[in-house]
């Protein structure tokens, strides 16, 4: 394993621990945030989710721009499309979201 791979693995682990602890503490949940924004006019949790998504997108693009991340092998950039696996994956994802009460994070 190269040093770069080790940095990615340990960095991902550290970010996951921080995200898990913070998400548990503040109740980080897109579904709950949207529900609060629509029904109670409190957009704070939804804004937090959008901020986190923006940071992830921007961070990924910065890493790519500086050559620190190669996005070509990414699952999302594959040229093939499976008409069977995509709906099946959607159903499994939906089932998981239901069992997590809408808060997959």
Describe the protein in words.
This protein has 105 residues and is mostly helical. Helix content is 68%, strand content 0%. The protein is built from four helices and no strands. It has helices spanning 3-26, 30-39, 44-65, 85-99. The protein is globular and about 50 Å long.
Structural descriptors:
mainly alpha; globular; 105 residues
Radius of gyration: 17 Å
Report the end-to-end length measured between terminal Cα atoms.
Answer: 29 Å
Helix content: 55-70%
**Secondary structure: number of strands:** 0
Helix-strand pattern: HHHH
Largest sheet: none
Strand content: under 5%
* Low-confidence runs: none
Coarse shape: globular
Total helix count? 4
Q: Would you tell me the structural class of the helices and strands? A: mainly alpha
The pLDDT mean sits at 85
Helix/strand layout:
Elements: H1 3-26, H2 30-39, H3 44-65, H4 85-99
Q: In a nutshell, what does this entry contain?
A:
The protein has 105 residues and is mainly α.
């Amino acid at each position: 394993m190269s040093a770069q791979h080790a940095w990615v693995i340990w960095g991902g682990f550290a970010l996951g621990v921080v995200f898990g602890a913070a998400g548990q503490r503040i109740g980080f949940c897109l579904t709950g945030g949207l529900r609060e924004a629509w029904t109670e006019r409190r957009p704070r949790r939804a804004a937090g989710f959008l901020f986190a998504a923006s940071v992830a997108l921007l961070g990924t693009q910065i890493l790519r721009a500086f050559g620190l991340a190669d996005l070509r092998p990414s699952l999302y950039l594959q040229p093939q499309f499976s008409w069977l696996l995509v709906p099946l994956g959607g159903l499994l994802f939906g089932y998981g979201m239901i069992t997590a009460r809408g808060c997959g994070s």
